[in-house]
């Protein structure tokens, strides 16, 4: 089994006057070389950090629940912030390479009303920044020598904007820190305290995040078709697969689809749930062997068929548990994390973690069948459903295997 793609990110501490961590600045990296990569634009770096780290892993985990400073230079990305990250413990850094100050100012004013805070990075006294200064919570200065240049500028800014907090970067000696502290600087950053610390985590690409998000929506009792359509419409690959699935379902009588919405409605709730869950295994686990995906499909379908006598709701719950039980391996994620991410109820979590109840028993039987351990399957069956003959389980297993082959061929073909 191949290893998941590794995503790199660095963080550097920002300390207060008592040398306690106030925040971390998050810095994009594309390898274990702890430096900003050559040939990567600010926009690319910010976008990759957002999709691959901030959203997937979570801001609070990356900064250990401290405040996070994040660099931004692109107004389009800035406009998307409210859809991606909440304003709590977040400072958006406007970098010195930013252009179109007038447009930037309009966005900053709007986001300030939504409680977002801003820092102006590497302030250089250029008059073009003056319209932005009243809306900044922080201004970051690079330490200059003689140090009096930096302290004079810091005092001037504090005098003009009393609520402004000054952050000084590139501090390398205790003498510099002590001098700046006595001059009234609020926050401190530099190699004197700590070099950027490298963090790594498994990576899920942006398109897979859409699938991940869609999978979460299937855990709700009723699908929101408009929400599903909106998510699918943002991904060309998903759109193509939905239309392909419509063709597969309509057989020789091909259905002409005029919109994604029409395709979604045509497929219906049950098919969409199946489609999304299969995509979760095939797309999220693209670097895993396809056999793992098929095991998940077989396991899910077996549980659905086995539990069908208990009603549609029980069968659907069994299908979801079957998928969730394999999703941990697909994402290199332990089951406790899977349960937390998808907000599974106590019955489902009990079945996954402890094989509790009929749901847990069905899962154990499915796993025994995968191992070709029919003696164990028969023993578990006698405990959870004594009246059911083992011969019927053979039949369900064969149906599940055929189902997995057929569905996987449609979705991944």
Automatic annotation (TrEMBL):
Any one Pfam family match given in the protein's UniProt record, by short name: HDOD
InterPro entries assigned: dGMP_Pdiesterase_EAL/HD-GYP, EAL_dom, EAL_sf, HDOD, RNase_Y/CdgJ
UniProt-listed SUPFAM superfamilies: EAL domain-like (SSF141868), HD-domain/PDEase-like (SSF109604)
Annotated HDOD domain residues: 204-390
Residue ranges of every copy of the EAL domain listed in the record: 1-210
Source taxon at top rank: Bacteria
Protein name: Diguanylate phosphodiesterase
Naturally occurring in which organism (per UniProt): Pseudoalteromonas piratica
